[in-house]
Write a structure and sequence with these properties.
- This protein is 32% helix and 31% strand.
- The chain has 323 residues and is of the alpha+beta class.
- It has two domains: 2-149 and 310-314, Aminopeptidase, CATH 3.40.630.30; 157-280, Aminopeptidase.
- The relative contact order is 0.15.
- The structure holds coenzyme A.
Length: 323
């Protein structure tokens, strides 16, 4: 684990340590720090993708910086490869009775932007809706907003489910080991231009099939026989201290050759019906604000925006203006 000293005090002297997959003990410590922060917060603080990459000891995809002061871990920035870019997420647990640790977050982003992996391609900082430092950090570092991601939700009431059933089409469950290659090709075709969902490798799929939450019965493929050309992959999030159990439309797509024929609506409805049958009351999904086809489809099914995550482009080797 390389150490770089940090010249700024927040409030006391801080060391920023670089962590890569070459140091599994440091990655495990980072993972434990994330777990502890999430347990204390009672809610996920990093994305599923970053969590899975962090815990996959066979990969070499982790590049992170960890801020430490007096042996106390203050926060971290974790970078993972995405489709043609590197995605960064920052975790900075703080005392909510005080102001947000803007300077620390800015420093972590500056440090991660100087790590090897991050400088090879564009670096995108995803800032989650509940993080109070987004604007101050973006202003301080001169970051440009790049994308907005909507989290949309809907109550799966009896009436709605009855309506969704009228659109639903026959599906079958994904079969691990049999459908992997066909599904990857379909996913990568449908999401060719997407920042995180496109260009998935077999490892990206393998990590998810091995995740504790994976349930093949909620991974629906259409048609019910033969090679799939549309799918809806659902994921159940157990209740936590902030939210009731949520049933997520985790990934949904229709092969471009079959778009515009009602399959997107049918598969979304099939997924929501499946989640309701699992006893879930609230359906949820994430969608790019710019994906007008998908947003209007979800609105027509009664979904409303719950919160907005934002992505900022981080120039390589950011020079912050500490004031
Ligand atoms: C989004 C997607 C699933 C829609 O599937 P589809 O089969 O083409 O959509 P449908 O034919 O079922 O249309 C359903 C609704 O979507 C909206 N829609 C579909 N295509 C649209 C377009 N080109 N422009 C605007 N709205 C559109 C409309 O509201 C439509 O309802 P309507 O037919 O009553 O007007 C599909 O385009 C897709 O797979 N896109 C790439 C992957 C993706 O973005 N997935 C969603 C990630 S959250």
């Amino acid at each position: 684990m390389a150490e770089t000293s940090c010249p700024h005090d927040y409030p006391h002297r801080v060391e920023v340590r670089r962590i890569t997959s070459q140091d599994p003990a440091a990655v495990a410590m980072l993972s434990e720090f994330v777990d502890q922060a999430e347990r204390a917060h009672g809610h996920p603080l990093i994305s599923d993708n970053v969590r899975l990459v962090l815990r996959d000891s066979s990969g070499d995809d982790v590049s992170a910086v960890l801020a430490v002061a007096d042996q106390e871990h203050l926060g971290c920035a974790i970078a993972c490869p995405a489709n043609g870019s590197t995605v960064v997420e920052v975790l900075a647990p703080h005392d909510h009775s005080l102001g947000p640790p803007t300077e620390l977050v800015a420093r972590l982003i500056e440090e991660i932007s100087q790590c090897g992996r991050a400088t090879s391609e564009s670096l995108v900082w995803w800032c989650r809706g509940h993080e109070p430092w987004a604007d101050a950090v973006a202003t301080r570092l001169g970051l440009v907003e790049h994308r907005r991601l909507l989290q949309m939700r809907v109550r799966l009431s009896t009436d709605r489910i009855a309506n969704y059933r009228t659109f639903s089409v026959p599906t079958r469950s994904f079969q691990p080991g049999i459908d992997d290659a066909g599904w990857l090709a379909l996913n990568n075709r449908a999401f060719a231009d997407h920042g995180e969902q496109g260009n998935w490798s077999p490892s990206d799929l393998r990590r998810r099939l091995a995740a504790p939450w994976f349930d093949a019965s909620g991974f629906l493929l259409h048609p019910a026989e033969g090679a799939p050309y549309a799918f809806c992959w659902t994921k159940v999030h157990p209740a936590d201290s902030h939210d009731p159990a949520l049933g997520e439309i985790y990934v949904i797509a229709v092969d471009p050759d079959h778009a515009g024929q009602g399959l997107g609506r049918a598969l979304t409805c099939a997924g929501l019906v499946h989640l309701a049958e699992c006893g879930i009351d609230i359906g949820m999904l994430h969608v790019d604000a710019s994906n007008t086809a998908a947003v209007s489809l979800y609105q027509s099914l009664g979904m409303v925006v719950h919160h907005v995550d934002r992505a900022f482009l981080v120039p390589q080797r950011v020079v912050p203006s500490h004031t």
